[in-house]
Amino acid sequence: MRTIATDSCVVVEFDASASPNVTLYTATAQPGGIQSSSSESPLTLSILANGTAYSITVTATNSGAQTSVASGAVVETPVSLGNVRHFGFHSVGTNPAVHGNRVALVDACTTANHVFGTDIGGQPVYLQEMATLGNGQQGIVDIRFQFFSYPDLRADWAVQWDFLKTQIASYMPQVLCWYLDEPVHNTVTAGGTIAQAEANLAFVASVVKADFPNVPLLVVYAWPQVTPTMNIPATIDWVGFDRYTEPWNTTIPPLLATIKTRVLAHQRLWLVPQAFQQLPGTAQSDALQAANMDLYWNLARGDPDIIGVLVFLISWMAPGQAGALELPLTYARAQEIGKQVKHSCAPVVVP
User: Fold this and answer.
1) 247 preceded by cis ω (within 30°)?
2) Could you tell me if residue 193 is inside a domain?
3) Fewest beta carbons within 10 Å, which of 48, 175, 197, 321?
4) CB 17 within 8 A of CB 88
5) What is the overall mean pLDDT for the chain?
6) How many CB atoms lie within 10 A of CB 2?
C-alpha cells in the first residue's frame, strides 16, 4: 500500500490481488470510519481534516461477499496546500527532435507543464498528447517566439500568432494559460531598454487577452527586473519570478516581497524553483536543490496569493548540463509535491 497525503484527503494506491474473485477494495480512515471503495486502485479518502493523523487500512471483498483481514495500517496526515492548484515542469514540451516528448513521463505528478504550442513542424504534438492522457494535465503554452525577436517585436507577429491559434484551436481545453518567459530581461540583454520592454509586453498582453479573455496569461520575470519600480501590465493574470544558484533565504523571500508590492489585486503569483545544474562548477548540489524545493513549497502553501509552482526545468538534455531528470533527490521531492497538488481535494478558490 502506498499513500499520498494532500489537502483534505489521502490517496491510497495498492497492488491488486492475484485472485480473480476479488471484486471490491475498501480503504478506511480512522478516526471517523471514513471509507472509499472501488474495484481498482487508487482509492481517495476525502472530507478529511487537515492536521489530523489518520490510520489507513485496505480490505478486499470477493464475489461471495467475503472480506479479507485489513492490511497493516499506514498513518497519514492531510495538509493544507493553501491556494496552490497548479504544479509542473518547465521544458516538458520543447523540440522533440532534440528532447523527445516528455508529457506522459510526468503525467502522474503534474497538473500543468510548460510546452510550446507547436513543434518545429507546426504541429500541436504536446497538446495532442495531453488530450489523450485523460488525466487532467494541461499546457502552459509558451508564445514568446510568436511575438518577440528581441529586443523588439517580430515584424510578422500577427501572422505567427494567427497560425498558432489555428493549429491549436481544437486543443484549447488542454491550455491552462499562455506563457512569456523573461520578456523584459530578454529585451534588455539584447540591447533594448526597460521602457521598450514594458511597452512591448503591454502590447502583447493586450493582443493575447483580446483574443482569449478567459485564458490566463502567465509572465515570469528574471530577478534583475524585479524592482520597486517595475510596471506589470494589468492585462497579465499570473506573475512569476526566478533566481537561480544563489542562497535561497537571502534572495527568494525578498524578491517575493518586492513583486507583491507591484502586482494588482486581481493578479496571482507563481514560484519557479531551480532544478538544474550547469556543470562544471555549479554551487547548487542535488541535495541542496531538494532542500530548497521544500523551502519553495512551504512558502507557496503559506501564501494565499501563490497559486502555482513551475519547476525549472525537467531536463537540458545537453552534455555537461543536468535538469530534474538528472538530479534524483530534487526530482523525487518534486514528484512528491506534484502528487499532492494533483490529488488535492481542496476546492478551487482563486482564478
Assistant:
1) no
2) yes
3) 321
4) no
5) 93
6) 11
Q: Specify whether 45 is located in the same domain as 92.
A: no
Q: Which pLDDT band holds residue 66 (cuts at 50, 70, 90)? A: confident
Q: Which residues pair with 140 in a beta bridge?
A: 114, 177
Partner residues linked to 241 by β-bridges: 221, 271
Domain ranges, residue 323: 86-342
42-46 average pLDDT score:
96
Chain center to CA of 20: 38
Same domain membership, residue 27 and residue 154: no
CA angle 349, 115, 244 (to 5 degrees): 80
Alpha-helical runs (H) found in 228-285: 252-260
Q: Could you give the angle at which helices 252-260 and 286-302 cross, rounded to 10 degrees?
A: 30
Taking the alpha carbons at both ends of the chain, their separation in whole angstroms is 35
Pair (322, 200) in one structural domain: yes
CB contact burial 112-135 (16+ within 10 A = b; e otherwise): bbbbbbbbeeeebbbbebbbeeee
CATH of the domain at 203: 3.20.20.80
Alpha helices in the chain (DSSP H): 96-99, 125-133, 144-147, 157-167, 183-189, 194-211, 252-260, 286-302, 328-342
What are the strands of the beta sheet with 138-142, ordered from one edge? 86-89, 306-311, 268-271, 238-242, 217-222, 175-181, 138-142, 112-116
Contact (Cβ atoms closer than 8 angstroms) between residue 197 and residue 187: yes
- What nine digits make up the cell of 16? 491488486
Residue 289: CB atoms within 10 Å: 27
pTM above threshold 0.85 = yes
- The cell numbers describing 225, all together, are 527586473
Which amino acid, one-letter code, is at 251?
Answer: T
Three-class SS of residue 186?
A: helix
**∠203-208-213 over CA atoms, to 5°?**
125
Looking at residue 68, its amino acid is S
DSSP lists the bridge partners of residue 3 as 12
